[in-house]
Amino acid sequence: MTDNSGVGAGRRILVTGGAGFIGANLVRRLLGDGWSVRVVDLLVTGRKEYLDGLDVEFVAGDIRTPEVVADALTGIDAVAHLAASGSVVQSVADPAANFSTNAIGTFTVLDQARRAGVGRLVFSSTGGALIGDATPPVDERSVPRPISPYGASKMVGEAYGHAFAKSYGLHTVSTRFANVYGPYSGHKGGAITVFFKALHSGEPLVIYGDGKASRDYLYVDDICAGIQLGLTADVPAGSVYHLASGVETTVTQLADACRRVVGKPDHPIEFRPPRPGEVNRNFASYDLAKAELGFSPTVELDEGLARTWDWYLAHVL
Ligand SMILES: NC(=O)c1ccc[n+]([C@@H]2O[C@H](COP(=O)([O-])OP(=O)(O)OC[C@H]3O[C@@H](n4cnc5c(N)ncnc54)[C@H](O)[C@@H]3O)[C@@H](O)[C@H]2O)c1
Hints:
Blueprint: E1 12-16, H1 21-32, E2 36-41, E3 56-60, H2 66-72, E4 78-81, H3 88-93, H4 95-116, E5 120-126, H5 128-131, H6 149-168, E6 172-177, E7 179-181, H7 191-201, E8 205-208, E9 214-215, E10 217-219, H8 220-232, E11 239-243, E12 249-250, H9 251-262, E13 269-272, H10 287-293, H11 301-315
Parallel strand pairs: 1-2, 1-4, 2-3, 4-5, 5-6, 6-11, 7-10, 8-13
Antiparallel strand pairs: 9-12
The chain binds nicotinamide-adenine-dinucleotide.
Nicotinamide-adenine-dinucleotide binds at residues 17, 19-23, 40-46, 62-64, 82-86, 101, 105, 124, 126, 177, 179-180.
């Protein structure tokens, strides 16, 4: 992967949603690269203590409020826009709330960024939920057909990102994340968080559906490296990239990997009916991100799970 060390020296970045799971990891990496970091976060799901001890300017505010975003953008060179409601299940239960945070919030961040003359904005999109039930591996040529309000909201964000690049010259890059896992994810509701908590408490691992549904799992350090490349690489404004492992992992395989890493290979599994809005099979090709950003993942699933389990033992369980 391209060496990005020192690229942030003397530059100022706003991380929206910087107190969340990916934000807490990204902020550490950006500080390490010399960026001055400001975070805006409403602490809906994120936790301020994730940023304890870091040299970060924290703004408690809502990305849907133009004045809050305009203030937070003062003196800023680049934006990593992560703030969102990230749950497919919640988006099906309350699509209006999801639209408000993800579509209106992203529009507000883009609109204020172009008014402020920000140099680069990386938008956190999604691979699986945006593309929907296409035959994998999906890539940038796959036709987006979201099957959840969450996926639709990310498609809206990408569309405005591209339109603002063409209409106003705002240098946006959309990065479509695979399923991300790693430290600082104790508040999340994803499969790995739920499995680790169940493995610790003794409850069975619950799998919705027959266990053959699949995802593309990417360790958070690899996602943060991809975002970093999106912030600095010499790529056209309005570009879109899948940041993924390229590996298909079924839910049953994931449960087995979690049981193996934790040392409980015979821990019970319980199957329940599938949930609406969730895609069936998904994994993505990262060929374009490799060619144009120099992105390639470095952490294998078992290694990433072991690092995540160690963090859960120390901080969550
Ligand atoms: N985690 C994944 O697997 C994954 C996959 C694809 C895309 N993404 C995207 O990556 C981004 C970060 O996800 P995450 O997993 O870190 O989730 P997260 O919930 O941990 O982080 C989101 C952050 O946004 C903040 N936030 C929510 N609404 C806000 C508002 N109105 N104003 C200001 N802050 C607000 C939350 O408090 C939280 O800190 C999201 O845009 C998500 O859609 C994540």
